[in-house]
Design a protein that fits this description.
Elements (H helix, E strand, L loop, with lengths): L3 E4 L10 H7 L1 H22 L18 H12 L6 E2 L8 E2 L9 H10 L6 H26 L4 H12 L2 H6 L11 H14 L4 E4 L11 H16 L1 H20 L3 H32 L9 H5 L5 H5 L8 H14 L12 H19 L10 H17 L4 H8 L11 H23 L5 H20 L8 H21 L5 E5 L28 H5 L4 E2 L20 H10 L4 E5 L5 H15 L4 E2 L5 E5 L1 H10 L2 H12 L3 E4 L3 E6 L5 E11 L4 E6 L5 E6 L4 E9 L2 E10 L5 E10 L8 H5 L10 E3 L2
Parallel strand pairs: 1-4, 5-6, 5-7
Antiparallel strand pairs: 2-3, 7-9, 8-9, 10-11, 11-16, 12-15, 12-17, 13-14, 13-16, 17-18
Helix pairs in contact: 2-5, 2-6, 3-5, 5-6, 5-8, 6-18, 6-19, 8-9, 8-10, 8-11, 8-16, 9-10, 9-11, 10-11, 10-16, 15-16, 15-18, 15-19, 16-18, 18-19, 22-25
Length: about 750
């Protein structure tokens, strides 16, 4: 069948109205609702939701991204939208346009819709997460039915598709990745394209300009719009799958199908581009943000392996399967293993194996040996394309290195493989049903098989490991809420809190940072705890890293004697200290420093993990002892800071003020392993050779900075030892009235950026 066809309505037949369409498909719609509700019920059982309070976050963990999504949800339902949040990143506000979050606009719109019924961000997040099970199962069921699968088999396949270990692992910590309901739609377009089914049709009558606006064309355009608006990853994967189908169609010389596939891929790309337009326009105007650029080597670690698909996920419920998985994972991936949760489950693995054998049989000319029909062969092609792209060292690696590394986590393409594999299982169940139904009690036997497969699959794909610690999380949530409410009662509406330690936003610090002063937050979002509970306060955390609004980054390596004056000059009324951001020893020292400076003991949270200092008395004393000009100069130096950035040749010194500035440059140099040498060349041309005898060496030198960027080059010399440059800072002359000998040698208050490393 040609991929571009002409649609001819029956003579005298009126157009099918939405009501008539709904009546025609009423049984399918009702069945889809039943599958959706059943999937939510099984998910609730797996998560033990009777222990939870849906008015509180299901997760409140410090080690994942849950708080990021809670903050996103709070901003959206509070009347904002995802790119901008005036309560974060004070005093400028937060913007997320460097992140391609707009690709999730459809999901964000669903969150906004839920927010019309409640203003509780935790409840909205929980309801959306549960809805992802309903949407994934219903979408898969409807697509399976459209492909000719019976209702009972489609119901089992759809439910198991929504209950993948992948779904529970993503959970609310990767809330928008949990919404993979567009994947079955992508699979449907792919399979129809390989079949040669027309994705677009032209009507035989009507105005010439509108003849392509047929029901089939509009349906395809709508499906592509959903795919391109639901999630960046799934839209990208769908486009890649369609390109694979186009190549296959071209090999078979089905030029109409190839053109149809290219058109569908272009429509997905167009929808994606429209959703990403605000980010693209922002970056075109302000330049790329170097601090949010992915590396291809980093993305390679997120590739997919065959063993990830066929082995059970970690902590599987069934003992023998769990032990097999643990043995392999501990040997190959002893640390964090995202791809380990790409497991298809035992039921899905059976379907995957049948597709693999069917593909092999087709290659040796025995396509009918396994009873595999055309749909199975097309599903086999889908699995082969998805695996060839996503597997470690596969086509995704070439895309990362030669096109863009921004799409990381190609193991997430496992949901496409799961879709095709569960389609194969549903077709196998139908084959069994056709054998059993003619027999006596065949209907009961088939129903028993279906229930058994669903029950085993649900047990196999779920685990108590995915059940959050509701009691502990609720206690911390209530502690944070009480602490924030006490602060709000003390400060006026609109007051701003400066937060310590400094943590880059979003994504935090790499987990590898260890500077012996603090404990890394890794990629968590603990500094959002205050914002999640506040209604009238503003917070310093949340300024986009790598942009000029992230002025607090330049205070991270400064001591309390400089940071507190800078914070109050910038208009902050309070100080929030996250104790988990520091080692126990540093926290004790910090408490003494802050108490001495502010003249007060901190307010402490019930969980004893947060401190608050009211800075208003300290501000009054500071202003009484310094001139208005000094305070104004300090504010300007704080909010428009001189900045340092790691570069391949050395350290870039940025002066954004438009005027010549005097500053003190400081950096700690250390050879990687044993003695070494380093050569520093300052912007004025002065050079210095330093001998590094294993320990850290502090370098401080006054520099004159012209407006714009200048480079201080650093090179390793005299050995094969690399040189690390840490804590590179520029102290503006405006800080001089507050600086002392004690301040110059004091420990920094915040987490520090990773070291710049210079090889010989």
């Amino acid at each position: 069948m040609s991929a571009l066809v002409e649609e001819r309505p029956a003579v005298g037949a009126p157009a099918v109205a939405p009501v008539r369409w709904a009546r025609r498909h009423a049984r399918t719609i009702l069945a889809a609702v039943g599958v959706a509700l059943g999937s939510v019920a099984i998910a609730a059982w797996a998560l033990k939701l009777w222990r939870a309070d849906l008015g509180l976050p299901l997760r409140y963990s410090p080690v994942d991204d849950t708080k990021f999504y809670l903050a996103l949800v709070k901003n959206i339902i509070g009347g904002g939208w995802w790119p901008h949040n005036p309560s974060l990143g004070a005093p400028y506000g937060s913007q997320l346009l460097d992140f391609p979050q707009g690709a999730d606009n459809l999901n964000l719109a669903l969150i906004w819709l839920l927010g019309r019924f409640t203003a509780n961000p935790a409840l909205v997040t929980n309801l959306f997460y549960l809805a992802t099970f309903a949407l994934a199962s219903a979408s898969c069921f409807v697509v399976f039915r459209a492909l000719g699968v019976s209702r009972p088999s489609a119901a089992v396949g759809g439910a198991l598709f929504s209950l993948l270990a992948y779904h529970f692992f993503r959970g609310e910590s990767h809330l928008l990745l949990s919404a993979y309901y567009a994947v079955p739609l992508s699979g449907y377009v792919f399979l129809r394209l390989l079949e040669g089914h027309g994705l677009f049709a032209r009507r035989a009558s009507g105005a010439r300009a509108l003849r392509w606006a047929s029901g089939r064309t509009l349906a395809t355009v709508s499906v592509c719009a959903v795919i391109g608006s639901e999630n960046l990853y799934y839209a990208t994967f769908a486009a890649v799958m369609l390109i694979g189908a186009v190549v296959a169609a071209a090999i078979m010389r089905r030029w109409g199908a190839a053109l149809s596939g290219l058109t569908a891929a272009a429509l997905i790309a167009l929808a994606l581009g429209v959703n990403l337009a605000p980010s693209l326009l922002y970056q075109a105007a302000h330049g790329a943000n170097a601090q949010v650029v992915r590396s291809a080597a980093q993305d390679e670690a997120h590739g997919l392996k065959l063993t990830n698909l066929v082995l059970p996920p970690p902590h599987a419920r069934i003992g023998a399967l769990s032990r097999a998985s643990a043995t392999y994972d501990n040997a190959v991936s002893p640390g964090y293993c995202e791809a380990c949760y790409a497991s298809l489950g035992t039921v899905g693995t059976v379907g995957f194996g049948w597709l693999a054998l069917s593909a092999l049989a087709a290659l040796v000319g025995a396509a009918g040996a396994l009873g595999a029909g055309p749909l199975v062969r097309r599903a086999s092609a889908g699995v082969l394309i998805a695996f060839a792209v996503a597997t470690l060292g596969g086509l995704s690696s070439l895309l990362e290195f030669f096109v863009t590394p921004d799409i990381r986590g190609w193991n997430r393409m496992s949901v496409f493989i799961a879709f095709f594999s569960l389609l194969a299982v549903s077709l196998l169940l139908d084959l069994l049903g056709r054998r059993l139904l003619p027999r006596r009690r065949g209907r009961a036997l088939w129903a028993g098989v279906l229930v058994l497969v669903l029950a085993f699959g649900a047990l196999d794909q779920t685990s108590d490991y995915f059940v959050p610690d509701y009691r502990t999380d609720a206690a911390e949530y209530h502690s944070d809420g009480a602490f924030v409410h006490a602060i709000q009662a003390r400060l006026p509406a609109g007051a701003a809190l400066f937060q310590l330690p400094y943590v880059p936003y979003p994504e935090g610090y790499p987990a590898t940072i260890d500077n012996n002063l603090v404990t890394s937050f890794a990629t968590s979002y603990e500094q959002l705890r205050g914002y999640l509970h506040s209604t009238t306060l503003r917070w310093s955390y949340g300024a986009m890293k790598g942009r000029s609004q992230d002025w607090a980054a330049q205070l991270a390596a400064k001591p309390a004697q400089l940071v507190l004056p800078a914070a109050v000059s910038a208009g902050f009324d309070g100080l929030w200290v996250e104790l988990a951001g520091y080692s126990a020893k540093r926290a004790r020292l910090l408490g003494g420093e802050l108490t001495a400076l502010t003249g007060q003991a901190p307010m402490v949270s019930a969980a004893r993990d947060l401190w608050f200092f009211d800075l208003r008395p300290y501000t009054r004393r500071l202003r009484a002892g310094h001139s208005a000009a000094q305070m104004a100069a300090l504010r300007a130096a704080t909010l428009t800071p001189l900045r340092t950035l790691c570069r391949r040749r050395g350290i870039t010194l940025l002066n954004p003020t438009g005027m010549v500035h005097q500053a003190v440059f400081s950096v700690v140099l250390q050879a990687d392993n044993g003695p070494g040498q380093a050569v520093l060349t300052y912007p004025d041309g002065h050079s210095a050779r330093l001998v590094l005898n294993g320990g850290p060496v502090l370098i401080r030198r006054q520099v004159t900075l012209a407006p714009g960027a200048s480079v201080l080059t650093i090179s390793a010399a005299g050995s094969e030892n690399a040189v690390q440059a840490r804590q590179a800072t520029l102290d503006d002359a405006a800080f001089a009235p507050w600086e002392s000998a004690q301040a110059a040698g004091a420990a920094p208050l915040g987490l520090l950026a990773p070291a710049c490393v210079y090889s010989p």
